[in-house]
Structures are given as structure tokens and as C-alpha cells.
Design goal:
CATH superfamily: MFS general substrate transporter like domains
CATH topology: Growth Hormone, Chain: A
Number of strands: 0
Shape: globular
Strand content: under 5%
CATH class: Mainly Alpha
Largest sheet: none
Number of domains: 1
Distance between the termini: 33 Å
Radius of gyration: 20 Å
Low-confidence stretches: 180-194, 391-400
Mean pLDDT: 83
Order of helices and strands: HHHHHHHHHHHHHHHHHHHH
Helix content: over 70%
Length: 400
């Protein structure tokens, strides 16, 4: 189950991160501004703002396999159709279809973890399938220009090639996953949840804090990944080298997906792994503006370790703070709000570049975002087992 979820994560993210390395090609061929490129890059996140809540409700009712399978088909179709886009409107339209599928699948991956992994190890399961996200981002940034683009010499052909993992993931989802939500451990969730109104779920204060953390996290990450290649080009890097160096953060982050959740589990703590990582990101956002090009790989490594550390812990929080029967809709709500940050961040970065000709102010914004993440983390109660052992009843169930 986690293997399929990992492949799905790769297939969801790799096509999105094929856009930043081709930024100069797309602006020239489609006559677009940097702000418009930022929009095309983040359209899947725009769709994710609205889609996860109904997708989570549907998953709570009909099960994970069918719901996520529908989304997988939309991802495969949308990414493949981008390969025939001839202008900006058609590229945007097909990316919207891809984005709807992205938002349809994403909230159901934490639900899969809650069904097949013990609650106390939710962050470990989340770390496993998050490695698919990281590898998708890493390969999308690293090989799009030096490897994929030369095969066709067109952005359409490049995008079509990047649709292959999504097609494979959709086929495997429908053929390998055999009705597990309806017949496996998750079946107990799909019976009770339909009678619980969404208004009950949204009264959980900790859920809103988690959503805010994810919003700040995605603002930082998608802005960074979207515009660091351009920043490196302004420092003198070639487009091929800029994408490759940016991808280093993800290669450093993949081991983090496995190691840091285990360390967090062993210590029984979550919050230090979130605010500590945010502190590192604050320093890295300043450092990357001043570091010489030949040393830029150092902040990239730190970025990957810190960002994936906080991401996997935040993504596991709905599983830890919500009753099982509410996880589908709770995850949908958190991911919808989090996607707002991922959508607006790169657009703000592109607008700053259009107005000033520089990305320096965009990275100053990221410093502020990292500081805000630290502040919000201290408002969230500790969900780890160490706190639960020492403070019985730390969390108030929304059923009370």
C-alpha cells in the first residue's frame, strides 16, 4: 500500500516541477511574464484549494481506492494532454485537469496511512510516501533540461514524457489495490463518518493550527523550488546546472523522510522537529542570497533536510489529532488551506521579479514566513507519545 502511495506521490509532483527549469523557454515561446509562469506552475495547488474537502468526504463514504483512483485517472489525463498544448490557454486548461486530480488524490494519502499504519507510527508512514514527493521534485528539477528536453526539443514533448509515471501509477492503483478500503482495516471508518457534519470537525482548534503550519510550509517550499533555479541563473549558472543544483535539496531530503520520523517516534516528540527545521530554513533563505555559486550546494542540502523534516511531521498531524472517522475530511481541510500558501507564494515571487528585476525581496519574504512557522508551532500542543505519557488528556477530542 505504501509502495503504491509512494509511486503516486512521485507521479503527482514530478510533472509540476518540470515547469521551473523550463521557465525561460516558456516565457519566450508563449510570451508570458514571470508572474504568469508562476501561475502555471502552481495551478495544481489552486485546484487543491477547493478539491480536497469534497474528495475527503467522498473517500469517507465510498472508500479510498475508488476516490483516489478517480483522481489518478485525472492526473494521468491532464499531464498527458499538456503534451499537446499549443498555447498558454490550452496549457492552463490541461494543467487545471491535472490539478483537480492532484487535489483529489492528495488528501487521501494520509487516510491510507491511517488505515494501514498504527496511529503512533503515522509520521513514519507519512515519511515513506513523502519520499515519493521528494524524488518527484528532485528528478523534475534535475533532469528536465539536461535529459528530457533534448529528447524532443519542445516543452510539449517534455511534458508528455513526464506524464508516463502518472499513467503507470493510475494503472497500478486500479489493478494492484484490491478494494482495501471497503474490506480492510479502513472499513470501520466508512460506516460512521457520514453522519458527522463538517461543522463539527472545523471546531477543532488544533486542526486550524495544523492547516496554518502547512500553509506557511507550502508557501516557503513552492516559492523556493520555483524560483531558486532562476536565482542561480542570475548568479551565473546555466539552466541545466541551476536545475541540478536545486534538486540537491530533494536528494538530501529523501533519507530525511525515513530517518527523521523514526527519530521523532523514538523521542516521542513532534514540535521540536517543526520549529527547529523552520529556524534552519530562516537562516538558509538569507544565506542563499549571499553564498557564492560554487558553495550553493551547502544551503541546498540544509534546505532539503529541514524542509522534509517539518513537512512529514505536519502532514501526520491530522492522523494524530483527529478521530479515525474524521481523517478524510480533516486532511482535506488541512491540505486545502495549505495549498493557498503553495499557490500564492510563487506568484508573489514572480511578481517581485517582474517589478524589481531581482528575487532578493522574495527571499526576504521567505525569512518572514519561516519566522511565522516557528511562532505557530509553539501554539500547537505536543502530539508525540512523550507528551501523552506525561500529560494525560492533553488533547480534547472534538467529540467532547
Amino acid at each position: 500500500m505504501l509502495g503504491i502511495a509512494t509511486l503516486m506521490g512521485f507521479a503527482m509532483w514530478a510533472p509540476m516541477f518540470a515547469i521551473p527549469p523550463m521557465e525561460q523557454i516558456l516565457t519566450a515561446e508563449l510570451n508570458l511574464t514571470h508572474t504568469q509562469i508562476g501561475l502555471i506552475y502552481t495551478i495544481p495547488l489552486l485546484m487543491t484549494i477547493a478539491v480536497p474537502i469534497p474528495a475527503g468526504i467522498l473517500a469517507d463514504r465510498i472508500g479510498l481506492r475508488k476516490t483516489a483512483g478517480i483522481g489518478a485517472i485525472m492526473i494521468a489525463a491532464g499531464t498527458a494532454l499538456r503534451g499537446i498544448a499549443v498555447d498558454a490557454p490550452s496549457l492552463i486548461g490541461f494543467t487545471c485537469l491535472y490539478g483537480i486530480g492532484y487535489g483529489w488524490v492528495f488528501p487521501n494519502l494520509p487516510k491510507l496511512v491511517s488505515a494501514w499504519v498504527p496511529v503512533e507510527k503515522a509520521n513514519i508512514g507519512t515519511g515513506i510516501f513523502s519520499s515519493g514527493f521528494a524524488s518527484g521534485v528532485g528528478l523534475g528539477l534535475a533532469i528536465t533540461m539536461p535529459v528530457i528536453y533534448p529528447l524532443t526539443s519542445t516543452y510539449q514533448g517534455t511534458l508528455l514524457i513526464w506524464s508516463i509515471p502518472a499513467i503507470v501509477a493510475a494503472i497500478l492503483w486500479w489493478t494492484v489495490i484490491k478494494d482495501s478500503p471497503e474490506t480492510g482495516p479502513e472499513s470501520k471508518m466508512t460506516v460512521e463518518t457520514g453522519n458527522v457534519p463538517l461543522s463539527v470537525i472545523v471546531r477543532n482548534r488544533n486542526l486550524w493550527l495544523t492547516a496554518t503550519l502547512l500553509l506557511l510550509t507550502e508557501f516557503f517550499f513552492f516559492t523556493w523550488a520555483g524560483w531558486v533555479p532562476t536565482l542561480l541563473i542570475t548568479k551565473g549558472a546555466s539552466p541545466d546546472y541551476a536545475g541540478l543544483i536545486t534538486s540537491i535539496s530533494m536528494w538530501a531530503g529523501i533519507p530525511t523522510c525515513f530517518l527523521m520520523p523514526r527519530l521523532s517516534q523514538r523521542l516521542g516528540l513532534r514540535r521540536p522537529f517543526i520549529w527547529g527545521a523552520a529556524g534552519i530554513l530562516l537562516a538558509v533563505a538569507w544565506w542563499v542570497l549571499h553564498v557564492p555559486l560554487y558553495l550553493v550546494w551547502l544551503p541546498m542540502i540544509l534546505l532539503g533536510i529541514a524542509d522534509l523534516t517539518r513537512y512529514v511531521n505536519i502532514l501526520a498531524l491530522p492522523v494524530e489529532i483527529m478521530p479515525h472517522q474524521h481523517i478524510g475530511r480533516a486532511s482535506g481541510l488541512v491540505l486545502s488551506i495549505g495549498a493557498v500558501g503553495g499557490f500564492i507564494g510563487p506568484i508573489i515571487g514572480g511578481r517581485i521579479l517582474d517589478l524589481t528585476g531581482s528575487l532578493n525581496q522574495a527571499f526576504i519574504v521567505l525569512i518572514v514566513i519561516a519566522a511565522a512557522t516557528i511562532a505557530v508551532t509553539f501554539l500547537l500542543p505536543e502530539t508525540g507519545t512523550a507528551a501523552k505519557r506525561g500529560t494525560e488528556g492533553l488533547f480534547e477530542s472534538i467529540d467532547n
